[in-house]
């Protein structure tokens, strides 16, 4: 795996609040920030993840890697009732549509609120590293959330560039992260299973698929 140096956060800021959706997406971003000397804290707020045991599994994996890296982890815990209220009426929207935008807005608004209350002037997210996500949509939601607070910025860094997406997979294999097979929400699970069945594949079996094997070398965040 070839290391690279990321561009610095906006305004030369060294302290960043990183919204994380899961360990596989966060791993590359965390290692890149650590390598660059960025002082970051992980903020885990993902009330979209369904069901509860799936949420706990994804959170536990992220905590495991944060502890390994010596990075502070803020657990905003499960807020599913508010999430279902936020996306009501959008149940049949396609992926990357209005429901996803409402979901990102909700998660980033909470991230920005925490940042404002705890002295962070820069927030960002690892959501955009996934090729399944619309990066412009994610950045727009992040910028809107940050704009609620004077002096706060959303760092619109392209974590996919310079091989970032490939390193994400390498780190996931190395760390044996839990490999989720759908975005996270109940509607994503529904639609993903429908697509799989229509194409002659079995439905998703949650909680059993892992990247890598137990014999692979463990790395670090340095």
Describe the structure.
The protein is an alpha/beta fold. It has one domain (13-198): HUPs (Rossmann fold), CATH 3.40.50. The chain has 7 helices and 5 strands. The protein has helices spanning 23-36, 52-69, 80-86, 98-117, 135-146, 164-175, 186-198; strands spanning 15-19, 39-44, 73-75, 122-125, 153-154. Strand 2, helix 2 (52-69) and strand 3 form a beta-alpha-beta unit. Helix 1 (23-36) packs parallel to helix 2, helix 1 packs across helix 6 and helix 4 runs parallel beside helix 5. The chain is globular and about 50 Å long. Mean pLDDT is 90; it is low at 213-220.
Count up the domains: 1
Strand tally: 5
Topology as H/E string?
EHEHEHHEHEHH
The CATH class turns out to be Alpha Beta
Which blocks of ≥5 consecutive residues have pLDDT under 50? Answer: 213-220
Strand ordering within the main sheet = 3-2-1-4-5
Helix content: 40-55%
CATH fold description = Rossmann fold
First-last Cα distance? 13 Å
CATH-wise, what's the superfamily?
Answer: HUPs
Which whole number gives the mean pLDDT?
A: 90
Compute the number of helices: 7
Q: What would you say the CATH architecture is?
A: 3-Layer(aba) Sandwich
Structural class: alpha/beta
Overall spatial form: globular
Strand content: 5-15%
Please summarize the sheet with the most strands. Answer: 5 strands, parallel
Rg, alpha carbons? 17 Å
């Amino acid at each position: 795996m070839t290391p690279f140096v990321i561009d610095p956060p906006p305004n030369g800021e060294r302290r960043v609040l990183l919204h994380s959706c899961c360990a596989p997406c966060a791993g590359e971003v965390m290692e890149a920030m650590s390598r660059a000397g960025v002082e970051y804290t992980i903020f885990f707020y993902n009330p979209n993840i369904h069901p509860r045991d799936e949420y706990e599994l994804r959170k536990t994996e992220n905590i495991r890697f944060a502890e390994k890296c010596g990075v502070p982890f803020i657990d905003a815990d499960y807020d599913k009732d508010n999430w279902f209220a936020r996306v009501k009426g959008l149940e049949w929207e396609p992926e990357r549509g209005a429901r996803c935008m409402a979901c990102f807005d909700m998660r980033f608004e909470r991230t920005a609120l925490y940042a404002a209350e705890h002295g962070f002037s820069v927030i960002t997210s690892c959501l955009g590293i996934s090729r399944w996500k619309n990066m412009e949509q994610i950045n727009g939601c992040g910028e809107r959330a940050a704009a609620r607070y004077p002096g706060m910025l959303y760092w619109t860094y392209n974590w996919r560039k310079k091989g970032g997406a490939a390193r994400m997979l390498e780190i996931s294999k190395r760390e044996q992260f839990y490999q989720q097979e759908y975005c996270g929400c109940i509607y994503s699970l529904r639609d993903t299973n429908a697509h799989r069945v229509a194409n002659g594949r079995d439905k998703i079996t949650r909680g059993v698929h892992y990247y890598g094997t137990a014999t692979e070398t463990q790395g670090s965040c340095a």
